[in-house]
Give the backbone structure.
Amino acid sequence: ILNVEQSPQSLHVQEGDSTNFTCSFPSSNFYALHWYRWETAKSPEALFVMTLNGDEKKKGRISATLNTKEGYSYLYIKGSQPEDSATYLCAFSLDDYKLSFGAGTTVTVRA
Amino acid sequence: EAQVTQNPRYLITVTGKKLTVTCSQNMNHEYMSWYRQDPGLGLRQIYYSMNVEVTDKGDVPEGYKVSRKEKRNFPLILESPSPNQTSLYFCASSPGWSNQPQHFGDGTRLSIL
């Protein structure tokens, strides 16, 4: 089982503030890194899949960066809104088929 | 509407009584996978399938079986369920392999007494 760590486990942010959090993964034999948003009582929803070192992805106010050499990815939320409250999961793959998920970072945006 | 459908959504059953959780996708995806989610542990992969008749173990396959006789269906079978299999289960599919985003079903909450 691959060790994929996310930090912090949870965070609270004031509406309008920006925030970021980390996903760490083994830096050897990288294949792909996924980010998902998981809202309460719903199913995880894909945000990004990144495959190249230095990759940056953006979707509205949410963006992600990837450093495969040092084994980390950051997810950024700019100008947080209450609807951004969710658990954000990252998943790492070193081959075609298996995905290993981190335990997630739970974001709560306070109005 | 493109979707992954799991049934049942909720099930309470007893130890040893065989059960099957069905998963069906209508997107013609080749790759399908089962995960279980337990508090503090994140999603753990149980089994995955690269195509019809091709399946392999994930990280936590013990106590589970799967089959992929048709492209759209990927049932999860618990031959003799035990209380430690009480969990939230997700089925997912994607058009390619692990470099493609996963589309998740709504989840099945299993309680085994």
Chain B has a mean pLDDT of 95. Chain B touches chain A at residues 31, 33, 35, 40-45, 48, 50, 56, 58-59, 90, 97-107 (CB under 8 Å). The radius of gyration of chain B is 13 Å. DSSP finds no helices and eleven strands in chain B.
